[in-house]
Every structure is written in C-alpha cells, then in structure tokens.
C-alpha cells in the first residue's frame, strides 16, 4: 500500500500544472510506488475532468526520485551535491518531510531527532541550495511545512533541542516553532534577493500519523476513532496551503508569510522575537559548522 500524504499531493499537483519535480526521500521503493500511482491517477483524471483537483496542463508527469535522509547530515550534503552536479534550476523548494513523536534516541549526528529532521537538516539544505534558487529567480520560493502546534513550543536557551524535556509532542512543537522563526530570519537576509520564504500549517490531516495512532499521539488517534476521518482534512486539502505558497501568483514578490488553511495568518509574538531568532540562527550555524563552506557562508550576511 502506498500511503498518501500532503507531500504526495503537493508533488502530484505541481507536476500536473507543469513543474518538473524531484521527489527527495529515504526509500526508493516507496518513492517509485508513489510515482507509479501518481501517473496512474493522472491518466484517469485526464480522461475524466470531474476527478481533477487542479487544472491539468501536461500530458505526462515529470517526477523523479533522489535519495535524501534528513536524519543524516552526510546524506543531506550528498543530495545537495548530486542535485547541483546536474545543473538543474530550482524555482520552488518545498520542505515537507518530518517526524511527529519520533524516536527518543539521538541521530547518528548526535542531535535530537525532531530538531534535526524537522529543522536542522532543512536549514542545511536551504543554505546550500540558495545559490541555485537565486540563479533560478527572480520569484523562486522556499516553503516549509510547519504546524499550528508551534504555539505549544518552549524556549530554553540552555536546552535548544529540548533534550531535558521528555514530552515528544513538545519537542515536535519546538522544531516547528524553529521552522517559522527561521522563515523570518531567512527572509530578512534575502531581502531584495528575489527569493520568497513561506511557512504553512496543513491542518490536522488524515495521514499515516493518524492511522498508526499509538500512545504518543492519543489526541489524533482519538479524533479519528470518535469523529471519523471525515472530520479531518484530506491529504489534498492539507496540501493546499503548500500549493498556494509554492505557486500562487498572488504572492509574487512577497515573503515571510505564514499560512493556515491557505490563508495568511498572524503568528505569536514569541515567533517574531528577533533576539530569539538570532540566537537560533547562530546556534544552528554552530551545529552545522562542519558542513558550511566559506562560499556558502558568504551567501547570507
């Protein structure tokens, strides 16, 4: 079974409107299964307009797999080098991958998993691909899939990875809080550079997290069991915010916008705190110092 999530729907919709999409993920087997399903659904939707979720503009989908494991900084750098070596442009970078209530054990790089997979590896990915985004613009965009749960985050400058906090939901929330803070920090540094930076909250979506349930996600599991999947957003509905941020011409020339339900929303004062943003930025660079070359460090002031 191929599990369909917001990343699947985002990839498929962008490809259907004419984008050439790289599906970067850990499992080649699952990626190829997903691509096969996308193409099958695409053929069905071409022949039956009532099934179309977006206005299809191409005969064939251009989607391909590349290996990327965000739990490994080495894998992240390998993906970056492989992508750059192909000389491809990059108009939209959607950072969709992540974990919720994941393992408690540290990654092979020695970081808390939510911190690295949801935030730090994305930071590294964006930083190294900025030159490509700039060359591909103006109008290139970075879209990070965050979460409204960022409001439950904690800030502890002495425990930035929440290692002293056993609550996995708090660790997840804090990683998403960091993603949104990073949006503001990056947008400020990219002012007048032709690259827009956005964060989105997809909503509570009926995906693999809800289906697996378990003791670490009792709220989502209870919603699904008592109210049913119809009360949750479909994966495509969850992907709409990412699609708006990635492709809507309404947001040409704009940046530092946080979306919920495909609509720009205000964020809390905690996220907008510039002093905290700078502390996080410097801490992140320190974590990644072995993977940041001088030419990359000059990309941002």
From TrEMBL:
Keyword tRNA-binding in record: no
Keyword Oxidoreductase part of the UniProt annotation: yes
UniProt cross-references to InterPro entries, sorted A to Z: NAD(P)-bd_dom_sf (IPR036291), SDR_fam (IPR002347)
Superkingdom assignment: Eukaryota
Keyword entries, A-Z: Oxidoreductase
GO molecular function, one term: oxidoreductase activity
PANTHER family: RETINOL DEHYDROGENASE, SHORT-CHAIN DEHYDROGENASE_REDUCTASE FAMILY PROTEIN
Family (UniProt): Belongs to the short-chain dehydrogenases/reductases (SDR) family.
Protein name as annotated: Uncharacterized protein
Organism (species): Strongylocentrotus purpuratus
